[in-house]
Prior knowledge:
Layout: E1 3-7, H1 9-17, E2 26-33, E3 37-41, H2 51-59, E4 67-68, H3 69-80, E5 88-94, H4 97-105, E6 116-126, E7 129-138, H5 146-161, E8 165-168
Antiparallel strand pairs: 1-7, 1-8, 2-3, 2-4, 2-5, 5-6, 6-7
Amino acid sequence: xxxxxxxxxxxxxxxxxxxGQFDSFLVEDAVITTFNTFHIDGHLVADFYSGxxxxxxxxxxxxxxxxxxxxxxxxxxxxxxxKKTPVSFKVVLHAAPQLMEKIAANPECxxxxxxxxxxxxxxxxxxxxxxxxxxxxFTTFIMDKSVEKLWDAYVRQLLSGFGLDxxxx
Length: 169
């Protein structure tokens, strides 16, 4: 687990809300506080979908648990846009299953993909600062830290690739 403070709040908010750079991530939760606090639960509601639609999601290797950021991003943007900055903003993103499999396939990884429950990226805006914190969860207790190290390295590389400056805190 690492905590990174992003330098340039505007840059990360643009990357998060105005571009598709984070669109392949899944959303567990988003909380936006402006004139009210808006809570978005990213869990998909299976009853909303027909059996065929759920089957199509599964066949296309799409999540049947969480929504993709690409589907939630426009809603969050509508809540945040305006002349005033939000009081706070928090989004909990998960790596898509394909990314978890890719990390598990890395020769430096000593953990099977089926043991990785989630790889998490928490992005929080509060008091004029944006902080990103990584996390991981497994289906069982694991002593091996290779997945966490690879995930942390991936997030650093991702943020750098987006042109975002950060420092570890």
